[in-house]
Amino acid sequence: MAVDLSKVLVIGISSRALFDLDAEDRIFKTQGLQAYSQFQRENEDVSLNPGTAFHLIKSILRLNARDRAKRRVEVIMMSQNNADAGLRIFKSIKHHSLDITRGAFTSGASISPYLQAFNVDLFLSADDRDVQDAVDAGVAAARIYHLPSDFNPRTNQIRIAFDGDAVIFSDQSEKIFQNHGLDEFKWHEQEHANEPLSEGPFAKLLRTIATLQKELSDKENSPIRIALITARDAPAHERIIRTLRAWEIRIDEMFFMGGVAKTKIVEAFSPHIFFDDQDVHVQPASVKVPSALVPYRTGPKKNHLSPHKPYSESHANSTT
User: How far apart are CA 210 and CA 112, in angstroms?
Assistant: First the structure.
């Protein structure tokens, strides 16, 4: 009987999101594909070090160990490498005892068409183009930043932090703020407090994680803890609370920042990953915890990126 991936949480992850491949990427950029491939072959038995999403993946795969009769999570390696270069990746997966057995290696072709074929709920990559293609295809996706050098992950609980507007919720209300200012935004949200917000790109993912949380929690503890860290404050907070009620989703910790910088709150929560749509929040947070930028769908609205992106991915994507 074929495995039905629609019944589990499926995470697609690129090799550079899972492992530290900075040195290999420099070889590719400066010496080309042939030198890169040769280096990978010569170092097949040298295990790669953890990358930005490694601790999230390692922790979330532990959920399968809670009930070996029922798998709840599948992680799929998805890379624009060819399978030959991918051999080192799978050897590193084995070295780190990660329960990952499936992979897609496209030899430079776009990964996007295969995300829905694998029923991917979340795609994490270091590559701008792959992430943008995934978002445009309707898949929750984010571009990871570098792993903080001193990040010390929790081992007894998976922690995930989300921004609100343009991540969990749509960007409709945010557009009112951008076009008409803060006072108009607050008035609009107060007037529509009883009207649930539309779903954003990560709403389905949040629902899936919240369902897992309910299934696996007992009276004393939960293996998953979720935080919402939003720039909203009162009175715009009410619509978010009522929306989550309507969705029947419980958020463990909620922070209404009202323009205060998010970094210290994110650091205090100490998530395995923090998702936000604004580089002004993601970049400083990425120094403290694993962080990822959620891009807007292709159109007139673009991410507010700083001039110097912390993780540029403008090359031909052979090392993703």
Answer: 26
